[in-house]
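Long-time lurker, finally posting.

We've been working with SRPBCC family protein (Nonomuraea typhae) and I want a structural starting point before designing mutants. I don't trust myself to interpret raw outputs, so I'm hoping someone here can both generate the structure tokens and explain anything notable. Sequence follows.
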Amino acid sequence: MSIRYAAVSMDVAAPAEAAFALITDWPRHREWMFMTDARETAPGEIAAYTGIRPFGFLDTMTITRFEPPHVVEVDHTGALVRGAGAVRVTPRGPAACRVIWAERLEVPWWALPAWPLAHAASVLLARRSLRRLASLL
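Top reply, 14 upvotes:
Generated this for you. Predicted structure of SRPBCC family protein:
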């Protein structure tokens, strides 16, 4: 197992409270998160399916820190995605904020050769998703 990191940030023309509310409205993820449907399966538990069924993967998560309107942290507990993730929202004035999405992933040794491509794709798709989030706000 090897630890790898990925992160993306974006300034958004919306108050931090509005951005955080949309980010943590799990059923609305399909509106801005690339090809992802998410739902709360139990208090503090999230299941997110990314892809077009049957081609995709299930990412299960446990919320480990929830401090509206600034921080939500999760542990990825699925078979494919494991590690920790965080979204931080920092105010940049009354009508603007910065959204930071970051992941610390546990990559199995057999998947390490694919990491450069997986990292590039995840960062590209995260940027696309944050642009979509900003447009909805």
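Before you design anything, note these points.
The helical segments are 16-23, 29-32, 115-136.
The mean pLDDT is 95.
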